[in-house]
Structures are given as structure tokens and as C-alpha cells.
Design a protein that fits this description.
Elements lengths: L1 H7 L4 H12 L2 H11 L3 H26 L7 H8 L2 H13 L1 H21 L3 H5 L2 H20 L3 H31 L21 H4 L2 H8 L15 H30 L9 H16 L5 H32 L19 H16 L8 H15 L2 H15 L14 H21 L11 H32 L5
Helix pairs in contact: 2-13, 3-12, 3-13, 3-14, 4-13, 4-18, 4-19, 5-6, 5-18, 6-15, 6-20, 7-9, 7-15, 7-16, 7-17, 9-15, 9-16, 10-13, 10-14, 10-15, 12-17, 12-19, 14-15, 18-19
């Protein structure tokens, strides 16, 4: 038996680093945070890597090592360390944070197709929010139907698109950094050699943007199953995680430099989050005399990746919720499956929640660009809520070290471990709460600003509240099964 286990441990530190990088990183992470902070984001990247990302990934390593057979990820960890009720809320959180994510994917697909066929970013500036959100709703419902039929083809396309997206991200960094030296184009941001250009102004506005940084580096719990497939896990897994952090930091910093050479950090365009990657590739294509070749490649890649992510994210988180959580907390109607094994009522619940989040904002947010930016920022508020369960699980594990042994230990001292977990938990919560403040100029459109603030507060509270209501419904409807 030991020989089998040893043979199974084929992952080395470089495999862990590369797998983690492909899982957590993408070009849009660079674009979105540059849009929020400009070149000062370089310092922010260094701080978030040291203070948050490295401890986060190493905590995940210990949790993955302690629960080698846990198939449900975070909810399985919480169930083992506490009780079924907390595990249900962990599974619910993991599912429900995907609602804003699903609401934005149709927008991303439309922006990609606009660049592919029109070759410019006018769509985000001229389109009516109601028209766009109506089209988004149709796209989303089409993918709900598609996901109910099976997503094998899109899974395969998604894997291909993931590799292509990673390649495009690396290509962007290489071309962006080298362009001024090879093509002698003018650098857009002045004083890039001055250290003060990279120092953030640590004011209230700065702290409202931290949620986007946390959102960018989160999600490493997805690679936790590979801890126990790593040779000499106690040494090679943390080494792989540290190399991963270095790779992400280098990509983030060089990517920010590349954007700074193309876009003036002191005058950031309002549509940078939506159009920035395409504008940058268009600039590089013109600089290297290949026209819109890079734009077309990125648009096709982004369309396929977003389509695959949309279909998969309708199904996979719901399967985790309904499959791993205690049935005592889930109304039996949600567990009903069709002949293809699809939880059809769960799909309907997903469709209703996402449809509301697609249509309601369009009634009060003026302009497609503001709507796009708002929904992206909402994701940065809501998605990190699932990371809170990772840190809670780690603190509970640290309290029970005698019971749960693991090949890899982040820290051996119980109190130090709880301190790391509490720090990461509080930083995540702090980022999510301050992230609720709208990033637009209040003076320019006060009614839209207040509408966004209200949605930013109401949306996560409503999603959490629904998770509290379902067990009450289950108590009334599942009496014959309890």
C-alpha cells in the first residue's frame, strides 16, 4: 500500500507552482487593479503577496493535507472540523457567490464579440444598459438550457481557452515591456523612473480598492487536492506555493509596468476595465505592425473561456451545494433531478437569482460602462466571502492539531496559526466591507452613486439571507425524510 502511495506522489514543486498559476491568475487581474490604482498598484501587489497571498496558500496546503479524502473542498473541511450546519453555510456561500459572476459573463462575451467584429470599444460607451442587460439575460438563459443538456464540449473548450488565456497573458507582458525598446514608441506614463510614482496614497479611497486585489489572488483552495500528490509535501509544497507567489507577483508587477507604458497612469480611461486588454493588444499590434491580430486572438480566447466558465459555473457549484451539504438543510424540491441527473429546480433557482441581478441594476445605473464596472466590483465584494470559510476552517484545524495530522504544516505553534488565520479572515472581511463603496465620482451622478451603494449592501445580505431561509423551508417540507 505504501508503494502505491509513494508512486502516486508524482507532483514536484514546479508542478504545484504552474498549476496554481494557471488556476488563480489572468491578465484581467492586472487591468482591473491598474484601473483602480494606477502604477501605485505595484506597491500594493508586493504588500498583498507578502501579507495575504503567501499565508493564504500555505494554510490551504495544510488543510488539503489534513483532509486527503475530502471531495467537497471547503465545506468538507468545515464539516469535519465542526458540524453539518456550518458545512451547509460554507457550501451555500461557495455556491451563492457565483451569482454575480454568472451575471457578468454575458457582458464579457458581448464586449469580446464587439471587439472581434467591430475592432473597437465603442460598444461599452454607446450601448443602452437596458438593451445590453436584456441581451445578457437571453445569453444567460441560453447557457442555463445548454448546461442542463451537459457541458462536456464546453469543458474541453474551456481547457483549451485556459491555456490560450495564459499564453496571451504572457505574450502581453513580454510585448508590453519590450515595445518601447524595440519599436521606440512613446511611454504613456511620465516619471516611470521616479519611486514616488509607485507609492500609494493610503487614504479611504485606496482602502475601498483592496477588495479587487483580494479577489485577484484568491481561489488557491482549488489546488488543495494536489498537496498529497506532491513528493516530499512538507518541503516541496510550500516551496511550490512561494514560487507561485513570486510568479504572480512578477506577472502583476511587469504587467502593471506594461500597462503604464501604454496607458497614462495619471489619466486612466473610464472604460479601462472593460476595454483595457483589447486597447492594449491593439496598441501592441500596431506597434509591431500586425494590425488587429492580437485583438482577434484575445477576443476569441476570451469569448470561448467566458462561455465555458458560464456553463460550468452554472452546474459545478450547484452540484457541490446539493451533493455535499446535509439534506436536512436543503428543501427536497431543490434535489429533484431530471433524466440527465441535473438538479432542475436548482437550475431554476440559479436562473431567477441571476436574472434579478442582471435586470435590476440596469434600472438605476446610467451608462453601460458604469454598469460593467459596478458588476465587476460587486464580484470583488461577494466572491471573497467564500475565502472567509477557508480561514475559519484553518483556525478550527489549528485548535485540533492533535486530532488531524498532515504531511505538511504551515506553522506548528497553535497560537501563531490562529493568529495567521484571524489576520487573513479580518483582512478579507475588511476588504469586502470597504469594497461596497462605489468607485465612481459621487458628484458627477449622485443618484447612481447611492443606487450602487444600496445594491452593494443589499445584494450580499440578500444572498446570505436566502441561505438562512432554505433550512427553515427544508424543516417544513422534509419532515418525512428527517
Amino acid at each position: 500500500m505504501s508503494d502505491v502511495n509513494n508512486n502516486a506522489k508524482t507532483f514536484r514543486w514546479w508542478n504545484i507552482a504552474l498549476l496554481g498559476f494557471a488556476t488563480v491568475w489572468g491578465l484581467n487581474n492586472v487591468i482591473n487593479n491598474f484601473a483602480n490604482q494606477g502604477l501605485a498598484v505595484v506597491t500594493s501587489w508586493i504588500l498583498i503577496m507578502i501579507l495575504y497571498f503567501v499565508p493564504y496558500t500555505l494554510m490551504v496546503g495544510q488543510l488539503g493535507s489534513a483532509f486527503q479524502e475530502a471531495g467537497g473542498g471547503v465545506s468538507s473541511w468545515v464539516k469535519a472540523l465542526s458540524n453539518n450546519k456550518l458545512a451547509y453555510f460554507a457550501a451555500w456561500t461557495y455556491w451563492v457567490v457565483h451569482v454575480p459572476y454568472l451575471a457578468q459573463k454575458p457582458q464579457i462575451i458581448m464586449v469580446s464579440l464587439s471587439w472581434l467584429f467591430k475592432g473597437n470599444g465603442s460598444f461599452i460607451k454607446t450601448a443602452s444598459p437596458l438593451v445590453v442587460q436584456g441581451a445578457s439575460l437571453l445569453i444567460f438563459l441560453a447557457f442555463v438550457w445548454l448546461a442542463s443538456k451537459g457541458t462536456t464540449t464546453l469543458n474541453n473548450l474551456g481547457s483549451i481557452a485556459g491555456i490560450a488565456m495564459f499564453t496571451m497573458s504572457m505574450l502581453f507582458i513580454i510585448l508590453g515591456v519590450s515595445a518601447p525598446f524595440i519599436t521606440h514608441v512613446q511611454i504613456a506614463t511620465p516619471n516611470m523612473g521616479d519611486i514616488h510614482t509607485y507609492i500609494p496614497k493610503f487614504d479611504f479611497q485606496y482602502f475601498t480598492t483592496i477588495s479587487m486585489l483580494v479577489f485577484a489572488v484568491g481561489g488557491s483552495e482549488k489546488i488543495s487536492p494536489y498537496v498529497n500528490k506532491t513528493k516530499n509535501a512538507s518541503k516541496e509544497f510550500p516551496l511550490g506555493m512561494i514560487i507561485l507567489a513570486v510568479m504572480v507577483a512578477v506577472s502583476a508587477i511587469l504587467g502593471s509596468f506594461a500597462i503604464g507604458m501604454i496607458v497614462n497612469s495619471n489619466h486612466i480611461p473610464a472604460d479601462l476595465m472593460a476595454n483595457g486588454a483589447y486597447q492594449a493588444f491593439q496598441f501592441l499590434g500596431n506597434s509591431f505592425h500586425v494590425g488587429n491580430l492580437f485583438v482577434w486572438a484575445f477576443a476569441i480566447t476570451n469569448t470561448i473561456a467566458s462561455a465555458a466558465a458560464l456553463a460550468i459555473s452554472i452546474d459545478a457549484p450547484l452540484r457541490m451545494l446539493l451533493g455535499d451539504a446535509d439534506k436536512k438543510y436543503i428543501p427536497k424540491a431543490l434535489l429533484k433531478k431530471n433524466k440527465r441527473g441535473i438538479a432542475i429546480n436548482g437550475y431554476k433557482m440559479t436562473a431567477v437569482l441571476v436574472s434579478i441581478l442582471i435586470i435590476v441594476p440596469a434600472l438605476g445605473i446610467n451608462g453601460m460602462n458604469d454598469l460593467y464596472n459596478w458588476l465587476l466590483n460587486l464580484n470583488s465584494i461577494v466572491m471573497p466571502m467564500r475565502y472567509l470559510w477557508v480561514f475559519l476552517a484553518y483556525m478550527m484545524l489549528t485548535k485540533q492539531l492533535d486530532k488531524y495530522k498532515s504531511d505538511y504544516m504551515f506553522v506548528k505553534n497553535r497560537y501563531v496559526g490562529i493568529g495567521f488565520g484571524l489576520w487573513a479572515f479580518l483582512l478579507t472581511a475588511f476588504a469586502c466591507i470597504l469594497g461596497m463603496v462605489p468607485k465612481m465620482n459621487m458628484a458627477q451622478d449622485p443618484s447612481s452613486w447611492w443606487f450602487q451603494l444600496a445594491l452593494n449592501i443589499i445584494t450580499p445580505l440578500a444572498l446570505i439571507a436566502l441561505g438562512l431561509i432554505l433550512p427553515a423551508i427544508a424543516k417544513r417540507t422534509n419532515t418525512d425524510e428527517i
